[in-house]
Here is the input.
Amino acid sequence: MKLGLKRDEVRLEVHTVEWQKEFHKVKQNILNSTPIQETRIEHIGSTAIKDMVAKPILDLVVGVDDIENVDKAIFQGLKEAGFLRLRVQRPNEIVLAKFTDESYQKKTHFIHLVEYNKELWKNLIFFRDYLNSNEKVREQYSNLKRKFIEENNGGIDEYTDYKEQFVREIYGKRI
Here is the structure.
């Protein structure tokens, strides 16, 4: 298993059980280096969905009490675990990434730091669980992702926009 994508690269890989093993390894590193509770670290995104084609980047959601006042010990511990805060601006979320080396050209992991058990946390977990329990929807999502690759040569922003309506529709099923 080889994780990593260059900036703005979009590539899909066939699902592998190695992604789950890598998640457990990274989760343990985070637990060892931060005060974050085990129940507040989850594997999300397509690498957490069985039989799903995915970008070879592992996504984790990490829950904190207050996104506006994250304990400095958390950032320090995440840095020790290899994660650096990105300049990405998203509402109610702080994004960190792990890179293959100090050239910072290739990201291998993302942490989505969000408020624990609030709307975004619940949506991200629900999306993963819904697709894992619904083969038909999982297939639709895989096909949508493959269609983007076949028809487009855009970057990550275009890829994310292309999937947005599908993702929002799944979020809507949570309510």
In short: The CA atoms of residues 108 and 156 lie 14 Å apart. Strands lie at 5-6, 41-44, 58-64, 84-85, 94-99, 106-115.
